[in-house]
Amino acid sequence: MRTNNYKSGKDIMPLMMNFTEPNPISISEPVSITITYSDAEQINYEMRIVGTRSLRSSMTNKSRGIGRTPAHVTDRKNEIDDSKSVR
Amino acid sequence: MVLIFSNKEDSHPTNVIKHLVGWGIPVFRLNTECLLTDYEFRWWCCDSQSADFYIKNIKNGLEVYGHEITAVWDRRPKIPHDLPIVHHERSVNKYNREEAHEFLSFLRYFMRNIFSIGSIVEDRPANSKMLQLSIAQQMGMRIPDTCFGNYKEAFEALCASHDAISLKPIGNSSVFLKGEEEYVFYSQKAASSAVMQQSKEAFRQTACFLQNYIDKKYELRITACCDDIVACKIDSQAQTDSTGKVDWRQGYGHDLQHEIVEIPEHIKLFCRKFLQRMNLNFGCFDFIVTPENEYVFLECNPNGQWLWIELLTGFDISQIIAHNLSKYENPQHDN
Fold first, then answer.
1. Would you call A21 an interface residue with chain B, using a CB distance cutoff of 8 Å?
2. For residues B305 and B12, is the Cβ–Cβ distance under 8 A?
3. 8-state DSSP, B217
4. Per the count of CB atoms within 10 A, which of A16, A47, B193, B253 is most buried?
5. Whole-structure pTM over 0.80, yes or no?
6. What is the side-by-side order of every strand in the sheet holding B174-177?
7. Cα of A86 to nearest chain B Cα, Å
8. Please, which residues have CB within 8 angstroms of residue A28's CB and are 6 or more apart in sequence?
9. Measured between alpha carbons, how far is B221 from B44 in angstroms, rounded to an integer?
10. Which of A1, A14, A37 sits opposite B206 (nearest CB)?
11. Is B208:B150 a contact under the CB 8 Å cutoff?
12. What angle do CA B36, B38, B41 make, to 5 degrees?
């Protein structure tokens, strides 16, 4: 336990704050699970984002170095091309 | 009909409602933050009609009359916020919200004689830790030595009698400072000497709440609903000071172990009688079990959370809540 030291005068904090470690305020990460309310059923559901990953692929040219013929390489695209909320 | 006061973000009613609906018990959920947008309501009393009220949920078509209600669950109502018409004048919006809030308070007090779990009528007085501790002491239960005060000398006797002190927040949960730091208030353990080294000004700024720090073997969260008692052992002492050992609420997200356990009959009896003394049908009790296996009462939250215990242990507390809400609906109902 560490007590926080403050200057006298207007900076003096209440007792409880002197024995509480502060936390820096940080921006929270987007949550993947949200609570959704159903009016019809009058209950809550946890909704999570589900995405389907693309099976697309394309050809790209990879350099083999100066003066060398580029190689043609199959490059799979791993993008999320569709997402939705599911229970 | 069971009437539930809550809000759309509250997950606690979900399994309770599923049980009630499964048993054929009608339920009307009033999400109070959208009282003005999602509901139509009226209350009346006149020469030709006794007092009654009517509420309709515009979203799902459900309706309820006051005379149909057999039980109320005051779960987590919020101040009416959503407005059907938003004015450019903030003061008009504020007025509309406050009028709706006052209507809700009147309505809730109007239903004070209906069986309820959670109650804005009884919860506020029952929330007083001073009242709780004094009643627990009168009932013969061990409690921590406790002092509230706003000047340093008020705590000299407490600090002189004990090596370690527990500093606790009275109500407020956090302070944001300069937009950069947040102080989230949990119970803090401190040496008595460290407390007495604080300046007089630190004590003078507001009411302070101190108890002697009690060594723990483990802690108990006891959920009591009428005569039904569920005790959950919380293994707080396996944690570090800042992850639940001092205040188990800090153990969330730190693998704090929970286990449903049996407790002595005299503790169950205490909880039931305590609820009766406080005019409550529900309460969440916090106890310390010492290394000497003594039970020490800390507090009782008249409308505490319990869903996390159900999720961690698998014990169906929702069914207990639903059973108690439904028992006045149909005396022959077998659930």
1. yes
2. yes
3. S
4. A16
5. yes
6. A23-24, B181-184, B174-177
7. 17
8. none
9. 43
10. A14
11. yes
12. 60
